[in-house]
Amino acid sequence: MLSAQDNEALTRVGPGTPMGELLRRYWHPVAPVSEVREKRIVPVRILGEDLVLFTAGPDRLGLISRRCAHRNVDLSVCSWIDDGSLRCAYHGWAYDAEGRCAQQPFDGASGDDRFREKIRVDAYPTRSIGGLAWAYLGSGEPPSLPDFEPYGWRRGFTEISVTVLPCNWFQCHENGVDPVHFEWLHTNWSSVQRGPHDRSYGPAHLAVDFDEFEFGFICGRELAPGNTNMRPLSRSNSVSEGGILCVWPYTLVTGQTIEWRVPVDDEHTLNITRQYSVLPDDQPPVSLDPGSIPYWYGPLTDPVNGRVITSHTLNQDFAAWVAQGAVARRDREHLGRSDAGIIRLRRRYLQEMDRVARGADPPGVVRGPGDSVQVELPIYMKSWFANGVSPEKFRQLHARIKGTSQASDGYFSVQAGRPEHVRRLFAAAAGVPAEAAH
Ligand code: FES
Ligand SMILES: [Fe+2]
Q: Rounded to the nearest whole angstrom, what is the distance from the C-alpha of residue 48 to the centroid of ligand 2?
């Protein structure tokens, strides 16, 4: 159980709050690069701030306040890109990527620039890496952007799925240090959903353990024998073996996925998942052009019956987090032995908020050399992801999951809702006819 005061501290993200200040020391993913290239103007809400992201040049993004300084029109709705600026469609004021008012057509016609020069909206630095556009909302010099190892893997098909969840980000992040949930929320609940003819529970967790490394936490667990789909990790050396990684400030890294729980505000989270499906190694390596990584928005609820979708792994996580309430009541919990990782995670965030308040950088913030720094991660079975699999192994993997609810489009996905055009891109990358995916 946590005090209501500590619960507030862990969950509030606005400017000036302890967690808001900690989070503002990191870069945040705000949109897939392919989405920005397609739409050119994308609304962003992050850490309680309403912003608009726009293409200011061939390799340049702008991220500025969402509201026009003239009469508060939402620039993500009423604007167009004009010579590298974002021009408000209402009366034509234009803003550059630094948030300066570059033009005021009517007032500027007098030749007097003094009014225009006084106008300035908030603007934040942006960069791109890993197929995502990133923003820095803090003060001072931005740190380097972590270039996580999986961004360079070329033997898998990468897609980015996005879902906004009506709950606080921290309960989503806590899930990353909660290995027992795999057994119940994923294995056993999936089995139950398949029906009474197939109701077999997975192997039980016998023990859980946690280590901390430079960029976050690693979960170790010991399972009852009997299921090769699960990952039996040694408890004594989980960092060197690799495992499921819970990375500062809100990222889960499994190898197959990188999942960011970006705080939209105190009661909403932008879940961005970069899913990497390993390919047969006789296929050409995939392009690393970030614009070639397809994106899609995955639904939280079934459009037909309105219920929260629970068929896929990530949707089961969504269901649990949303079901904890808009902000989980940690002052009403009863934590047990399985929650050792969660207790440790909370303690570390509370400690780091204090350190940040005294001027220190929190863990995982790296400063130079360069705008980005390569970061190796202790990912379990890393070479498998990096090198691809034999065509025979690929066929076996997909034959095994075909027909299950998690492969509703013919191929496994961690999340429900993969659109047809992305399924076809996957089939092409895997060297199989698109029709074979069904
Ligand atoms: S409201 Fe934007 S120019 Fe008037
Ligand atoms: Fe999960």
A: 26
